[in-house]
Amino acid sequence: MSTDCTNQGTSGSFLLYLRVCCVIDNLGRSVTIKGNGINRYIHCPRALPKSCTSEKDCKDLNSKGSAINGNYIIYPDGETQVEVYCDMNGINCDGEGGWTRVGYLNMTQFGATCPTGLAQKNFTNIDHPLCGRESIGDASYCASTNFSTNGLTYNKVCGQVRGYQFNHIDAFYSFNVHNNTDSPYIDGVSITHGSNPRNHIWSYIGGLYEDGTSITACPCNTGYSGGLNVTATFIGSHYYCESGLNPGQPFSAVLYANDPLWDGQQCDGPESTCCPANSKMPWFYRSLDTQTTGDIELRVCSNRGVTEEEIPIDIMELYIK
């Protein structure tokens, strides 16, 4: 394993040793440090060095010099050990390190399973399972899964979600009826914190057609005439919207696996305005108005039953700071 430590400062050999060997992934391994034309070789012990700092979260670890992405031990309450993954560069978030991961899903990995609350969905035209709602009839509802923040205080949230269109998803079609965070207000994925009511963080929404302009389309589409001013709702500008159905292609009860949602790709025609060049899609970043310790909830929602429409997901990451 090689790690490039160029421009990470001259904090001394011992601090460099701790910066490398306090990363759980490096325990029991030999690590090559490359920087300023010099290679340094560090062999990490099998157990965490006693000099590793006991910090409450990844932000504190980062402030003490930890700069390598990986798994660390943190002490959220000052006593209890919790192993977490830390993003120490924040490239996909705010550009700064110290992000604590609280949720992770990658169904493309062998043996991956859906989190509690989401059902495994198998389709013949994709090579891995997806996660979505249970088949409970022709019902409008959201399937929910929660991610613990271990009581950490945060006011920034960052993450990504990738999903797929099944049949005729229709964005905000029923928003006039379901118009609050506790309802299935979208066809898509809702990310919130807290409860009674849920506090909106981000929405991933699916529109029917890439070139649609009606209420079933993405409101960010050029020429949208659906009558909903999303920015005036609790959602504001904190959403992504995309369709997996090409113009003129009739919808049917199939998974449109060739055009994953919210990845910023294949955004053609009127939908191109939903995928601006400066976007980090599928990644979102949100700075909250106040600090919170609330757990984060992810819900897969739709205003019809799973045989009529569904937006199953396969990739998800959530970070707090």
Q: How would you explain this protein's 3D organization?
A:
This protein is mostly beta strands and 321 residues long. The chain folds into 2 domains: 2-88, no CATH class; 103-320. The chain contains 2 helices and 18 strands. It has helices at residues 13-21, 58-63; strands at residues 2-4, 30-35, 38-43, 70-74, 82-87, 99-106, 119-121, 130-132, 141-147, 154-167, 188-193, 199-206, 239-242, 255-261, 283-292, 296-302, 309-310, 313-320. The strands form 4 sheets. Strands 4, 5, 6, 10, 14, 15, 17 and 18 form an 8-stranded antiparallel sheet that branches. Strands 9-16-11-12-13 form a 5-stranded mixed sheet, with no helix packed on it. Strands 1-2-3 form a 3-stranded mixed sheet, with helices on one face. The radius of gyration is 22 Å and the shape is elongated. Mean pLDDT is 89; it is low at 1-11.
The shape, in one word, is elongated
Largest sheet: 8 strands, antiparallel
Structural class: mainly beta
Helix count equals 2
Number of strands: 18
Characteristic key phrases:
2 helices, 5-stranded mixed β-sheet, disordered N terminus, Fibrinogen_a/b/g_C_dom, mainly beta, 321 residues, Fibrinogen C-terminal domain-containing protein, 2 domains, Fibrinogen_a/b/g_C_1
Record the SSE blueprint.
Blueprint: E1 2-4, H1 13-21, E2 30-35, E3 38-43, H2 58-63, E4 70-74, E5 82-87, E6 99-106, E7 119-121, E8 130-132, E9 141-147, E10 154-167, E11 188-193, E12 199-206, E13 239-242, E14 255-261, E15 283-292, E16 296-302, E17 309-310, E18 313-320
Parallel strand pairs: 1-2, 12-13
Antiparallel strand pairs: 2-3, 4-5, 5-6, 6-18, 7-8, 9-16, 10-14, 10-15, 10-17, 10-18, 11-12, 11-16
